[in-house]
Amino acid sequence: MELRGIQQAGVEILANHYKPEVIICKTPSEVDAYVANRLAQQIQTRPDSVLTLPTGNTPTGMYEHLVTLVKSGQLDLSRVTIFNLDEYHPIDPSHKGSYAAYMRRHLIDQVPTSAWYIPNGQAEDPQGEAARFKALLDAHQPVDLAILGIGPGDTCHIGFNEKGSSIDTTVRYMPLDPQTKATNSQLFEDPSEIPEGTLTQGIADILQAKEIIVIAKGSSKAWGVNRALKGPVGAEAPASFLRLHPHVTFVLDEEAAGYLQ
Ligand code: GLP
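A: This is the predicted complex of the input protein with GLP.
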């Protein structure tokens, strides 16, 4: 797979870029069904697929569809290997706000899968944990399909790769960005319990996947989607790097597509 773009004097210069496919669905639930069906097709084509999967509000409906497909006998995830995109640090994996607990609730405890890897939010040495997770991920690359969300407002983040994350970043510890902290703390029963840091796949890890799907729903994503697809490619808008990958699809509801012309 050919990634496009060159680096010069620390500045990413766009040599050329691809045009992601954009699918606009009428409603958020159509987004969920569309992405779940794309994921199901991938797994039916290759039952031992390696996937990168996201957390957050956006993909919960997609997981519901997937679980329904499995429980009704239409889909089998038992040979699939799952990598998560990111996790908070420090956090006990049993804490309700952790991405590990999210994954157990929405997928892992619901249906059989072959293997599931997520950064250990409790690791005493976060850099060492990042290296361990990266080695595991590298041993399974290229991931067949990565599904990502995108950050709200003007963050334009993917995973926890916030503004300033360059194209060559790999799995690492990142302090939690203040804007992301304010948004994500609403997902904690006690917002003050949100951790100060994160462990995240880097841009370079994400771009190694054979295919990438970005899901975005709601008006809070409209600016970031437009910035990612239409603005300059660079670290100021990490999701814009996806345009250097040849097989990317943005699946949007009408609100998230609201700024696209
Ligand atoms: C979070 C996570 C991302 C997620 C994104 C969107 O901060 N780090 O992995 O995809 O932001 O989250 P949501 O779907 O809740 O809007």
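The first helix runs from residue 28 to 45. Residues 54-58, 85-86, 149, 151-152, 159-160, 180, 184 surround GLP (CB under 6 Å).
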